[in-house]
Amino acid sequence: MDRLRDRDTETLAEIAVEISPATTSRVIREDREWIALGAPDATVMEETWIDRPTAIAEIAGYRAAEPFLDDDAVRLAAARTNRMFLDRCPDCETELEQGVDMPCCGGYSGPGEEPAETLVCPACEVRLYTFEPA
Ligand SMILES: [Zn+2]
After folding, report:
1. Structural domain boundaries of the chain?
2. Taking burial as the number of CB atoms within 10 A of a residue's CB, which of 19, 46, 53, 62 is the most buried?
3. Over the chain (134 residues), what is each successive 10-residue block's mean pLDDT?
């Protein structure tokens, strides 16, 4: 992750498209930087948007899994799971905080349902992982 952190988001977007099933990527700068992955004729609704810290963690996890796993899809899944073990932000190295995922429009989706716990970078305001109740 140290090496990826120094790259600009355009470079990360190029790497992300190489290791994912997507065929296109573009960088979006709004409140923060995103990498949008999609197919050439995909609409915005069909694109997958990944924020920069998540992209760094997933690319690093994917590369780390390379010697152990042959299947690309399995490696991507492993890279995703990898994010739950982070203790610092992959991008700015701020210590991550555990939070609780509060629905914005009130109430939980079902009675007795616990809100999901999350791992958040307070500096980037990015959620790195959501612990889903089993
Ligand atoms: Zn951060």
Report:
1. 2-131
2. 53
3. 95 94 93 91 86 96 92 89 93 93 59 79 94 74
